[in-house]
Amino acid sequence: MGGQGVRWLWRELPGLVAAGVVDAETAERLRRHYGPPGQVFGRSLLMGILAGLGAACVGLGVILIFAHNWDSLPRAAKTGLAFAPLLFGQALAAWVILKRGDSWAWREGAAAWWVLSVGACIALVSQTWHIQGELDDFLLTWLVLGIPAAHLLNSSTAIVLALAGILSWTTYAGTQSTASLALIYWTLMAAVLPHLWWAARRGVAARVAVVTPALAATMIPGLLIILGKSGAPVTTFGVVSAVTALWVFLRLSAEKETRTGNLLVAVLAVTALMMTFRDMHRTRWFNADRLDDAMVTVGVCIALAALSALAVRRNFRLFGKADIPVLLMVPVTALSWPFAAYDLGEIPALAMNLLVAGAGLSWILLGFRDGLFLRMNAGLALLAALMACRFFDSDIGLLAKGIAFVGAGAAFLVVNLLAGRRTAQTAREDAL
Questions:
Q1: Which pLDDT does position 391 carry in this prediction?
Q2: Is the alpha carbon torsion for 242, 247, 252, 253 positive or negative?
Q3: 411 closest CA partner among 389, 372, 380
Q4: Structure confidence at residue 420 (pLDDT)
Q5: Could you count the other beta carbons within 10 Å of the beta carbon of residue 135?
Q6: Is 97 helix (H, G, I), strand (E, B) or coil?
Q7: Can you count the helices (H) and strands (E) in the chain?
Q8: 52: which of 157, 210, 277, 344 fits an S-S bond (Cβ 3.0–4.6 Å)?
Q9: What DSSP designation does 204 have?
């Protein structure tokens, strides 16, 4: 049972005991069997990570042992040794599927071995038979042959390796001006995303916690590479749409704020601060050499934004007032695009300044009202960062800047002091 399933069970057991559906002894045995929710999550996550790392180390060690005497071996022996780890990995995967399908550690280890052995086999065969090729072709072939292992064995380790491979391919292919970069990139991403969707639908929190940061860490640089020559507004719209879609997915799957979700909000906040500068709103639509890539990627990002809006509308109860500034990032960046194209950058820059200021103020007020110190201080930090951007972007004197920063620091202290006193007063009232 996944982490969310265990949490649901622990919430339901007291009611089931009270209703007489199960007795107290049975409920206690269920608790001992599945363990606390946090314990299940941590143990499963640790076992999966260790299994994947162990298989990776063993695979690399075998390859190094082969490499030690490689030059003295005949070509036929080299070919056989090149395929041996791959064949063993496939046999191991078949055994795991048939005999150990319920073991996350076995699945993760077998999938990691499979993916690494595919790359080693391609490289060794190419070296043995002097097959010429480019690095992007090697990486693409490796991905096409390695991604199936992730789905056959339902492995998060293989998905993370695939995401790293996609970013590596995108980075190299982007420097070579590959014509079909965006089409291949989104096809590869579409091949790995079903794993994350499956994990969220099944309530496997550990898999979501592993794959989501990896997806964010690889998707954002990939979008920057693909859209980097199309101008800041276009690139920002792509990044904001993708990050917001991932954030909405996390909120829907966890039904609460998560650490990864808060990191994504931080990415959006930094992006918004960058777009408060007028010089960032300069573009001439698309460059000719990136026309196809930019159009395909922007189309995908528009689809992601539309799906996110539909998901928010259907699950509006999961989102609060503090989420409004995050949700507004997509339409604001979308509207800034046509203004920037006609050299009206001051309008979208002003809109972004107002959005950042509104987000900071709302987070301060909502955090103070609800006693959420992290949200309150996030709002203070956002306002202080916006103030710093405007001061360094203006001709205000050093004395005025110094006074303003002293005032901002005093605001931090006063707001936190008032919030602390309010929390203490509430605690005393509850005790009475």
A1: 76
A2: positive
A3: 380
A4: 60
A5: 12
A6: helix
A7: 16, 0
A8: 157
A9: -
- Residue keyed to tokens 């990939």: 222
> Is pLDDT above 80 for 130?
no
| Cα–Cα distance for residue pair 150/225, rounded to 1 Å | 26
Q: Which residue shows structure tokens 């799906």?
A: 307
Q: Could you tell me which residues come within 8 angstroms of residue 29 by beta carbon, excluding any fewer than 6 positions away?
A: none
Contact criterion met (CB below 8 Å) for 338 and 278: no
Crossing angle of helices 205-227 and 291-314, in 10° steps, is 140
- Read off the tokens for 163: 């995401």
Does 263 have pLDDT greater than 80? yes
Confidence check: pLDDT of 259 > 70:
yes
- Collapsing DSSP states into helix, strand and coil, what is residue 35? coil
Tens-digit pLDDT profile for residues 208-243: 888 899 999 999 999 999 888 777 888 899 999 999
Give the integer Cα–Cα distance in Å for 239 and 245. Answer: 10
User: 């639509």: which residue's tokens?
Assistant: 285
* CA-based end-to-end distance of the chain: 41
